[in-house]
Amino acid sequence: MGAATPANRAWFPGLVIHTVLAHATYNGVRVLISYRTLELGGSGFVLGLMTAVYSLVPLLTALFVGRLVDRGYATAVLWTGTVLSVLPVALAAMAPNLGVLLIATMSLGVGQLLTTVASQALIPQSFPAAQMTSKFGHLTLGVSIGQTVGLPMAGMVADATSGDTAITNALWFMTAVSALTLIAAVIVMLRGRTPHVSRADAAEGAQSPWTLLSLRGMKPAIFASMATLAAVDLMTAYLPLIGQQNGLSVTTVTWLLALRTLASVVSRLFIGSLTARWRDLSLLWTASAMAGISVILIPIFSQPWMLGVLLTVAGFCFGLTQPLTMSWVSALADAKNRAAVLSIRLAGNRLSQVAIPSAASALTVLAGSGIVFTMSGALLILAGGVTWRNHHERW
């Protein structure tokens, strides 16, 4: 794509705004779905199942979506994902039982996959390599801002409504918020259309998933990303349960989760300064290990102020790991396979978000909800060790 003109330069701020609104929706709605699951009689096992199905279809379709985007269909994928970021929220608000809520959760997960792949792929398709890290930083900053706004907004609306309809009313409110992504998607269209590549032409330069996975650095980067996303999801799903067990209100829990995302905003604001001082992989393995230690301690220290400290440290580290792994995998592939490697990374994320919550939900039956944080924290520490090893092999 050529140099931006004043007429189309607004598309990238539009994409960041879209990201803010979409992720405000995803995070606010997901914690509300946890409370709605409990209202409808769901147990800790069902909470883990809800978290798993959110990522099940995206896991199976991520590479296909990436190939579509590599062929020039990023804006079409973005539009489809935007619609699937609105309608499932309304369905969750109307859900009369856990089955319907499960369908809404799964559909919202597909919407997040589509918007995420398209948004990430538009960056290498539109900017030179020298600008990619900063643009990914802006995009992930939008993710963190959205998460920071969405969680307390959902909690405050729920707490402001008395009676049995509090969670339902909050879901309707979040439906209205998610509808604003449609306006932002119109602004993204100012970018202009990417030329489409035929299936035959795309197949000539396409590398198989196994070839892409064999690229040096892909597996450690994906594992670090997987461990982080699983920890974030499990924290969002199970902190309400920890909160209930310790007498914390919905507002307190959502503010604690918002504190985590606010810490991610701060770390992403300073990621340029941090990467100028330390090598990317040094920063990545340190962040993974520190996040792991913090997550393991969550069920041990249940006082709100201590949870605030632990979630702040974890959130700061989470904020670094995602853009660092994004830039890492983007640099490993050529232009014809860039969306594909980003999709493989996302598929890895979704695999972790299916397998780890499923295992966690089963373990809660035997060992209680605290085991979820022990397991996800241990995986983060292991990811830090794998990245450390790759770093020392390179240098």
UniProtKB/TrEMBL annotation:
GO terms for cellular component: plasma membrane. InterPro entries: MFS, MFS_dom, MFS_trans_sf, Sugar_transport-like. It comes from the Bacteria. The keyword Transmembrane helix applies. One of its GO terms (molecular function) is transmembrane transporter activity. It is a multi-pass membrane protein. The chain crosses the membrane at residues 46-66, 73-94, 100-124, 136-158, 170-190, 221-241, 253-271, 283-301, 307-333, 354-383. PROSITE patterns: MFS. Its main location: membrane. Keywords: Membrane, Transmembrane, Transmembrane helix. It is found in: Cell membrane. PANTHER family: INTEGRAL MEMBRANE TRANSPORT PROTEIN, INTEGRAL MEMBRANE TRANSPORT PROTEIN-RELATED. This is Major facilitator superfamily MFS_1. It comes from Brevibacterium linens.
